[in-house]
Amino acid sequence: MIISILDNDFYKFTMQNAVISLFPKAKVKYEFINRDNTKFPDGFDIELKTYINNMGKLSLTQSEQEYLADKYYFLPPTYLDFLNGYRYNPDEVDVSMRNGELKISVEGYWYRTILWEVPLLAIVSELYFIKTRQKTLNKNEIADIARQKARRFDKLGVRVADFGTRRRFSLDNHDLVVKEMSKYGKTSFTGTSNVFLAKKYNISAIGTHAHEWFMFHSAKYGYTMANKLSLEHWSDIYRGDLGIALSDTFTSDVFFNAFDTKLAKLFDGVRQDSGNPLEFADKTINHYKKLNINPLSKTIIFSDSLNPDKVEEITNYCKDRIKISFGIGTNLTNDVGVRPLNIVIKMTAAKPEGQKWFNTIKLSDDLGKITGENSTIKLCKDVLGIT
Fold this sequence. Notes:
Blueprint: H1 10-22, E1 27-34, H2 44-55, H3 62-71, H4 77-85, E2 93-98, E3 101-109, H5 110-113, H6 117-132, H7 139-156, E4 160-162, H8 171-184, E5 189-192, H9 195-201, E6 204-205, H10 211-221, H11 223-238, E7 244-246, H12 252-258, H13 261-266, E8 269-272, H14 277-290, E9 299-302, H15 308-318, E10 323-328, H16 330-333, E11 343-351, E12 358-359, H17 374-384
Helix pairs in contact: 2-6, 3-4, 7-8, 7-15, 10-11
């Protein structure tokens, strides 16, 4: 199911490089979250462990290292040499199951464990559909759906990328969809978050950072400084490259309070991953205007549970107001006639060097995406003045 170490989202590698540079001794914990409480078939955990153990055999090939060095100049050769020697350690992952309830946890040094999340979720999703043997569309039908979406996005004149590794139906299906989107999305399809498929089809790998980057900073520096220092440290590493800032780890209102003139000018734009996208567009545009920045010089990347209808609605709303782009996940890679799993893996605790373990939370603009212990969520709200 995972045949290359590059079968992962690009932001995992960009964050790993930053973690090695800035926080090499930090430790973290991750937990699997099953939002729909889906029950898993008997024996699922045993088979999952086999696939996890097999990941320990993966390594970066010479051609893959050369590809990264040639394509992504902002990843230093020291990092690529590290990645060449990196091996997944299955001992960092614990899997158990009782009465169909699957539990997965990951613990270890952050610079090592950061790569587990995306391939673990991809394996869980693909294995689930193998085990449950649900009726699906055939490959020709799936390919036709992808072509129709690509043509619709072309007609809308929008920019769309695949963000669907985590909850894909299968690697084969993911490959098929990216192939069709690349071929028929002549003006709209900009790339994929999946580095393996980006290399295979000679398209751009897309991504910057994820919520865990901000969650760790809250553990090390406190909630008040988490957004600002996350972005400052990101710019210290990438010096203006990878300039899309994630906005909703502790609500977008708190983010924009920290997103001052310096950061707003430095970063190319922001990513919206929860809440109402139209309200977020208004909020972002007004924020740039307040800072005397032309919104048309900046970009919003929308990535929250998108489908073609939502893309069209957002496009019409934002037209001639701000530049926009879209990262579409499950609707691209698991549109095969089954109900996709609603699963994530999130950082639950962090231990910065010289500090104690601290529970981490995500306080997004969507109540269904909030993660963390209630007492820690309350503490965060109290500190940040969120009612």
